[in-house]
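DM between two lab members

TW: hey, do you still have the Elongation factor G entry open?
JB: yeah, one sec
JB: this one, 217 aa:
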Amino acid sequence: PYRESIRKPAEGMGKYVKQTGGHGQYGICYIKIEPLPRGKGYEFVNQIFGGAIPSQFIPSVETGIKKAMEQGVLAGAKVVDVKVTLYDGKYHPVDSSNLAFEIAGSLAFKEAESKADPYLLEPIYEVEVRIPEEFMGDVIGDLNSRRGRILGMEAEGKIQVIKAHVPLAELYRYSSTLRSITKGRGTFTMKFSHYDEVPREIAQKIIEEAKREKEEK
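TW: and the structure you got?
JB:
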């Protein structure tokens, strides 16, 4: 469920060159990446002029970039909210191919992301909890312990309605906890709200876990 994004602009160079006897592979590209506002997704700008990369290979560079964005350098999560500008490259009249430029695009993005101060994002859910008044303190305490942010409370007769933003990662087994706190008298609903940055120390654990899983494969 995690995503990755970047804090600052950075540049990357991707080079895929294999020139042995016969038909080889040749693709070199230079890109710049910049952060976009949260929720903006992805933007690709082609600034190649004068045929540094022939136009038929540009879509392959972008395909490579998009493939690299599916698995970011931090934790293998999808990269979002990034503008990518392709501004230079080199080709070979015989050895260049779509494959070479696709691989070059992937390599360029990985290099750029690792230099752009990448960070992790996690899904945040809006949770609405309805409980009898006497359980207010315990339920709010539990939500706080789940890194929840209380958005507001209102009374509906003897029932209290609490709204909070809570990271999805912290909602594991929430229904059984709420049941036991409220002796089965509390109910809740949850829906996706937005992505937000994962606190540094928690992000570190997620990144280490992802690295371990990758090594075990």
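TW: got it. Residues 143 and 166 are 8 Å apart (CA to CA). The chain has two domains: 3-116, 121-200.
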